[in-house]
Amino acid sequence: MDSNKGILLDSGTNELELVEFLIGENHFGINVIKVKEIIQPVPVTAVPHSHPYVTGIIELRGEVLPVIHTAKALGLAERALTSADKFIVTEFNKQKLIFHVHGVTQIHRVSWELIEKPSSMYQGFESHVTGVIQLNGHMLMMLDFEKIVMDIDPSSGLTMDRVRRLGKRERSSKRIAVAEDSPLLRKLLKETLEEAGFAEAEFFENGKEALQFLENEAEKGPIREAFQLLITDIEMPQMDGHHLTKRIKEDSRLQELPVIIFSSLITNDLLHKGEKVGAAGQVSKPEIGELVALIDRFIL
Fold this sequence. Notes:
By secondary structure, the chain is an alpha/beta fold.
C-alpha cells in the first residue's frame, strides 16, 4: 500500500483516495492515508478479558498489534473465515491497529464534494459512518474508525484531564471557529474547549460550511475582529481541511486568520501537506492539551 500513497495530488485539491472493502454485503471505505498495508489473515492470539470487538493480537514485523473484528463492531452478523477475508493494517491517532474485513476490492480517487453527510436512513450505521458516496452502482460508506476505537477504549478520545492540568483560565471573550464532521468529536471538543475557557466556539460539520460562514463574516469587517482562530479536521464531506485552509490563505479577507489542523492523520510523513497550504499549526488527535496550548499562541 505504501507505493499508492504518492498517487494523491498536491495538498488542497479537495480529493482523497479510498480503499473499498466489504463487511458482508455492505461496501465501506477508508482513506488510503490511514492504510499501512493489507495482508492475508493470520492466526490471532486471544487476549483474556479483552473488549468484545477485539479478536486478539498478532505480531507483525516485530510489533504486537490488536486485531479488531469490524463486523462485530458494526453489529453485523459474523461469518466463517473465507479466502476473501483481509486484515487492513492502519495507523491513525498515533497508533497502529488491524481491522478484519470480508474483502478488499479497489482504490478510488474521489472529490470530497461528492461525499455526502449520512442520514438516518443508514439504520444502525449512522453513528459509525462519516460520509457516503455512490460508486459503481452501489453506495460506499466511509467508516468512522476513530469512533470504533473510542468505543473500545474511551481513554483514546479527548479527555478533560488533559485540559484541567492547564488550570483555570479566562478566555470567554475569544471566538473560535471549528470544522469537524464527527458529531461525537464536536460534542467532546465543545466540552473540552469550554473547560479550557473558550466558551465562544462556532461549530461546522464540514469545511464548506465553515468557509461560507467566514466569508460572510468577512463582509461585515476584519475577520480577526470577529474570530481569532479556526480549528479544522482534515477528513470531512464536501470540503476537507487542507482545501479549506488553502482557500482561506488565498482569500485576502481571510488570510490573517490562523488555522490549526487537528486530525488523526497528523504524522511526520504528512506534516508537509498542512504546511504547504499555510496551516499555522498541526496537532494529532486526541492531544487536546497540546491543541489548547497552541491556540494560546495565536489568540489576540
